Amino acid sequence: MQELAREIVLLQTELDREIERRRKLLGVTVRERLVGFEHGIAAEHRRLRMGVGRFLARSSIATSLVSPIIYSVIVPLLLLDAWMSAYQAICFRVYRIPRVRRSDYIVMDRGQLSYLNWIEALNCLYCGYANGLIGYVREIASRTEQYWCPIKHALRITDPHQRYYEFLEYGDAGGYRARLCEFRERLRADTAPDASPPAASES
User: Fold this and answer.
1) Which residues fall within 8 angstroms of residue 45, CB to CB, at 6 or more apart?
2) pLDDT tens digits along 194-203
3) DSSP assignment of 99-145
4) How far is 117 from 111, CA to CA, in rounded Å?
5) 61 or 17: which carries more pLDDT confidence?
6) Of 31-40, 159-168, 194-203, which gets the smallest average pLDDT?
């Protein structure tokens, strides 16, 4: 299982390289987290932008009616963001666990794309924030789980976090008693066993 977990990390690295190669083909440049395009490509992007009037005319009535419900989720998201940031700021200091860098997960750069009108840009910012926040919260939760309960489930779970593959087997009572301190020390020494935190996406 450790070999498979390492292979997943290697495949992710390969995927990141392929994404970077495609960015270059599209004329994207990333320098110190600043994203730019070649001049001709940027002009083409502006040409392809759809006006807000045309965009709204092509949207269905049902889509427009449910949009307030979609945007209402920002309230619990902001509360979750504040609460989890406070949680790790307080508790991780006590546990001596490295705190999760929020900027590694919440990246809102798509609003700068000139082929998006302001509604599309707002939608992209919202989705980038929501999904980035879930990743940020998941990482905080996974570090907490490694500290308190590094045990696999007996039942299969979908898409477990990266640390899960290193956890103790369900029912391994001896291993839990003998190795819990080891899991905690490993967490304090490094943010994840045999892996590094995901790089912030710039696309």
Assistant:
1) 37, 113, 114, 115
2) 444 444 444 3
3) PP-GGGT----GGG-TTS-HHHHHHHHHHHHHHHHHHHHHHHHHHHH
4) 9
5) 61
6) 194-203
From first CA to last CA, the distance across the chain in angstroms is: 32
Hey, is 202 helix, strand or coil?
Answer: coil
The pairing of strands 28-31 and 34-37 is antiparallel
Residue 117: burial class (beta carbons within 10 Å; 0-12, 13-18, 19+): middle
Count the residues in the chain: 203
CA atoms in the 13 A half-sphere facing the CB of 28: 20
Element (H, E) at 34: strand 34-37
Calculated CA dihedral for residues 71, 73, 75, 77, nearest 10 degrees: -120
- pTM given for the model: 0.74
Residues 6+ apart with CB under 8 A from 44: none
Q: Contact at 8 Å (CB) between 114 and 38?
A: no
Where are the alpha helices (H) located in the chain, listed in sequence order?
2-25, 39-47, 52-58, 61-72, 74-87, 93-95, 118-148, 173-189
Burial zone of 192 (CB within 10 Å; 0-12 exposed, 13-18 middle, 19+ buried): buried
